[in-house]
């Protein structure tokens, strides 16, 4: 079939129009909006590089460590408190405050220091809980010592310690569960290990409570 010139022109125009319409459409983009990490979107999860199919095993988590402090030797803690504390004055209280302390010591000494005589001054101090006071005692070889203590109103646990200051060593200590302790009662009296007179510190340590404490050394 022959095409007339008019038909050929019409087909050409239709073909041109179809091409223009197809070219006017905007190109399709291959970009896709991410589903995480964008504005108002949840954060993206990190890509695992281990533990999956065809991946190496994940390393075991490092064990957690907790710092621990070695328990403190009670005697070393006592000496540390004795050395660092500001010692209260001894024998500075008289009258109504000291009277009950002295009376309590003398009463207990009739049993705990029977047959012994007092040596040195009556040691007394008003202490807060956890504080110390100290007095001096010269222990002579061949003699036996007892130290009788008494705590006044408000004192729950009071301890007496004998400390050798040259080497910062506790020579002896009384039980700490009483407001009226005795160090070396009766036949358990304390003797010096040195062949010569040895100066020591008598430490009055208020473990619990607050108030007046006192102590008197006895010898035989």
Task: State the separation between the terminal residues, measured CA to CA.
Answer: 153 Å
Strand fraction equals 25-35%
Number of strands: 8
CATH fold-level name of the domain at 74-219: Jelly Rolls
Mean of residue pLDDT?
76
What string gives the helices and strands in order? HHHEEEEEEEE
Order the strands across the largest sheet as they lie in space: 1-8-3-6
Characterization of the model:
With 220 residues, the protein is α+β, with helices and mostly antiparallel strands. It has a domain at 74-219: Sandwich (Jelly Rolls), CATH 2.60.120. It is 21% helix and 29% strand. The strands form two sheets. Strands 1-8-3-6 form a four-stranded antiparallel beta sheet. A four-stranded antiparallel beta sheet has the order 2-7-4-5. The radius of gyration is 46 Å and the shape is elongated.
Task: Pick out its properties.
4-stranded antiparallel beta sheet; Jelly Rolls
Task: Provide a brief overview of the structure.
With 220 residues, this protein is of the alpha+beta class. The chain has three helices and eight strands; from the N terminus they run αααββββββββ.
Question: Topology, please?
Answer:
Layout: H1 5-24, H2 74-84, H3 98-112, E1 117-127, E2 132-139, E3 145-151, E4 155-164, E5 169-173, E6 182-183, E7 198-209, E8 211-219
Antiparallel strand pairs: 1-8, 2-7, 3-6, 3-8, 4-5, 4-7
């Amino acid at each position: 079939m022959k095409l007339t010139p008019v038909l050929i022109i019409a087909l050409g125009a239709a073909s041109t129009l179809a091409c223009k319409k197809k070219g006017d459409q905007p190109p399709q983009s291959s970009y896709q909006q991410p589903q995480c990490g964008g504005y108002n979107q949840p954060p993206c999860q990190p890509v695992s590089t281990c533990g999956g199919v065809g991946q190496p095993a994940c390393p075991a988590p490092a064990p957690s460590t907790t710092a621990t402090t070695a328990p403190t030797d009670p005697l070393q803690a006592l000496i540390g408190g004795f050395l660092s504390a500001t010692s209260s004055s001894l024998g500075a209280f008289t009258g109504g405050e000291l009277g009950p302390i002295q009376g309590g010591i003398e009463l207990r000494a009739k049993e705990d220091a029977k047959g012994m005589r007092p040596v040195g001054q009556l040691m007394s101090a008003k202490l807060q809980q956890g504080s110390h006071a100290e007095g001096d005692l010269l222990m002579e070889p061949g003699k036996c010592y007892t130290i009788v203590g008494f705590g006044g109103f408000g004192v729950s646990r009071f301890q007496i310690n004998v400390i050798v200051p040259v080497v910062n060593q506790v020579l002896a200590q009384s039980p700490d569960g009483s407001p009226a302790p005795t160090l070396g009662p009766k036949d358990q009296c304390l003797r010096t290990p040195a062949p010569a007179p040895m100066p020591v510190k008598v430490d009055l340590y208020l473990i619990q409570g607050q108030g007046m404490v006192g102590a008197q050394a006895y010898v035989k």
